[in-house]
């Protein structure tokens, strides 16, 4: 709820981040670094990211104080958020309360990014739908109403597709599919994984063709969806749609190629709009979202729309490796929960958060490392350790009191 309020301090800090600053000294425990290995590794990786930011901003590109302080503040707040939320989101009740207040916050407050009818649904309504679906899914899953839960997720997915929120619709649909497949009690092997992947690709392409026909013939999703598909050489190729919808991600590779070792620095401006012109070429239209005259009238930063690539742009290959490690550790825990934690009432939330987390690292702005990934990561991390210690209790592990030496089980394929 407090995230709706901003405070001017080294850029814009949200009120919930001020609260994290105040709570961090009381929630941080040195023993947690020993007792929870993944928690320790994530904190250390973020500290490494901060170090690479310092090297690039101070010694390589000699960034302005305003820019590098904003960049460093974002990483520091990510670290503090992990520290605080790891302690606060450690029970089922805490997670559900957090989701509920997140939904209320999105109902009451509207972000500045909401400036059109299309963005209103994507950035105002979709977060409310996501929170509501998570709460409803837990309620139905706990009562064994699997079909009703999956039906609600599919309805939410279709509602998003119908209103030009394709990525959210895909995430809801994919989450429902994962839950349905794993609820069949399949024993996953490499051979079965290949078969599922092949069948999934066929089903996906079939659904995608149906979606394209519905947009081009019936106007599904409104004028924006239709105009995007019409300017593609082959609208039935989903990769072309991904490229035009996430052109910033592909433009990021050009920025990385220019300065691969140390990056461009924190909050570096795209002064001559070199990279925005690349985005515009992927957009395939003139005078659209990335109109050059409009872009030239305000400060524009190097686009990336990817947490992983954004780290590389800001502070080079070292920053990319640090953020990749954060992603790797979180996804290890998340995939283990998806495959093995069906007994948890929060299982539907774990699946939905796993899919959205992977999408965030690949195709969301770098600022998600500060604003959304800590909360998602801490819910998954606490879920993982709840599952792990429950697993050890069931197996009567003798070394239960020495988690620093634990052999952590991950998802393995036979």
Automatic annotation (TrEMBL):
Signal peptide annotation: none
Q: Does the keyword Cytoplasm apply?
A: no
The UniProt transmembrane annotation reads 42-62, 93-109, 121-141, 148-164, 170-186, 193-211, 309-331, 343-362
Q: What residue spans carry the region label Disordered? A: 395-414
Q: Does the keyword Glycoprotein apply?
A: no
> Which keywords does this chain's UniProt record carry?
Ligase, Membrane, Transmembrane, Transmembrane helix
A Gene Ontology MF term for this entry?
ligase activity
Q: Where is the composition biased (Acidic residues)?
A: 395-405
What is the protein name given in its UniProt record?
Answer: O-antigen ligase
Source organism of the structure: Chitinophaga japonensis (Flexibacter japonensis)
């Amino acid at each position: 709820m407090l995230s709706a309020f901003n405070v001017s301090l080294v850029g814009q800090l949200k009120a919930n981040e001020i609260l994290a600053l105040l709570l961090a000294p009381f929630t941080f425990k040195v023993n947690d670094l020993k007792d929870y290995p993944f928690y320790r590794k994530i904190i250390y990786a973020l500290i490494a990211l901060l170090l690479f930011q310092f090297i690039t901003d101070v010694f390589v590109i000699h960034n302005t104080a305003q820019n590098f302080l904003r960049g460093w503040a974002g990483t520091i707040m990510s670290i503090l958020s992990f520290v605080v939320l790891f302690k606060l989101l450690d029970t089922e009740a805490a997670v559900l309360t957090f989701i509920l207040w997140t939904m209320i916050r999105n109902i009451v407050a509207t972000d500045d990014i909401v400036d059109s009818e299309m963005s209103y649904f994507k950035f105002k309504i979709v977060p409310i739908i996501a929170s509501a679906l998570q709460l409803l899914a837990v309620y139905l899953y706990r009562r064994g109403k699997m079909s009703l839960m999956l039906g609600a997720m599919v309805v939410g997915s279709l509602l998003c597709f119908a209103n030009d929120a394709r990525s959210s619709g895909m995430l809801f649909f994919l989450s429902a599919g994962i839950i349905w497949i794993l609820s069949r009690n399949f024993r996953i092997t490499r051979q079965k994984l290949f078969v599922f992947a092949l069948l999934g690709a066929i089903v996906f392409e079939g659904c995608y063709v149906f979606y394209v026909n519905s947009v081009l013939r019936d106007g599904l999703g409104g004028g924006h969806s239709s105009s995007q598909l019409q300017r593609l050489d082959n609208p039935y190729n989903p990769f072309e749609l991904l490229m035009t919808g996430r052109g910033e991600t592909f433009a990021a590779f050009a920025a990385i190629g220019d300065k691969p070792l140390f990056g461009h620095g924190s909050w570096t401006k795209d002064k001559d709009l070199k990279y925005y012109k690349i985005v515009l070429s992927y957009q395939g239209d003139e005078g659209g979202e990335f109109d050059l005259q409009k872009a030239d009238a305000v400060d524009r930063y190097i686009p990336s729309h990817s947490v992983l690539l954004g780290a590389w742009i800001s502070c080079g290959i070292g920053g990319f490796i640090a953020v990749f490690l954060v992603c790797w550790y979180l996804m290890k825990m998340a995939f283990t929960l998806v495959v093995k934690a069906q007994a948890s009432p929060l299982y539907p939330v774990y699946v939905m958060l796993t899919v959205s987390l992977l999408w965030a690292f690949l195709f969301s702005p770098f600022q998600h490392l500060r604003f959304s990934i800590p909360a998602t990561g801490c819910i998954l991390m606490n879920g993982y350790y709840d599952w792990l210690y429950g697993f050890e209790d069931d197996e009567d592990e003798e070394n239960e009191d020495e988690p620093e030496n634990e052999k952590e089980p991950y998802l393995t394929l036979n």
